[in-house]
From TrEMBL:
Keywords: Acetylation, Phosphoprotein, Protein phosphatase inhibitor. This is Protein phosphatase 1 regulatory subunit 14B. Residues 1-12 have a biased composition (Polar residues). Pfam families: PP1_inhibitor. Residues 1-34 are annotated as: Disordered. The keyword Secreted does not apply. GO terms for biological process: innate immune response. One of its GO terms (cellular component) is cytoplasm. Belongs to the PP1 inhibitor family.
Length: 128
């Protein structure tokens, strides 16, 4: 039912809607579905990746001595590093990425290599 206020009580008419008696509306509760990402990949491996990414960001903010937003645009691709046959090649690749960093990067690189050791590559699984 709509109720219109009179012009005496309000300068402009307003309309208010009321639920008719005898009907109850319950808000729809969305059904929580598992996200596509966690279906495709192992949740534990995703957690490891997230922790590694947060660690990398923390380390880069210290290396570049700035806030996260001010870190130079660089991408450390963990899957690319995991594809490399040796730690020497991985270290060289990361060192190339950090070429404009003026602080020593050896501790960061060795820490990164330790953290990715044993990680799995996140490749899209084949459909069954």
């Amino acid at each position: 039912m709509a109720a219109v206020t009179s012009p005496e009580t309000s300068p402009q008419p307003r309309v208010y809607f009321q639920t008719p008696a005898g009907t109850t509306e319950e808000p729809e509760t969305p059904v929580r579905k598992q996200g596509r990402v966690t279906v495709k990949y192992d949740r534990k491996e995703l957690r490891k990746r997230l922790n590694l990414e947060e660690w990398i960001i923390d380390q880069l903010t210290e290396l570049y001595d700035c806030e996260e937003e001010a870190i130079p645009e660089l991408e450390i691709d963990v899957d690319e590093l995991l594809d490399m046959p040796s730690d020497v090649e991985r270290a060289a690749r990361v060192k190339d990425l950090l070429v404009d960093c003026f602080k020593p990067t050896d501790d960061f690189i060795s820490g990164l290599l330790d953290k990715i050791r044993g990680m799995q590559k996140l490749s899209t699984p084949q459909k069954k």
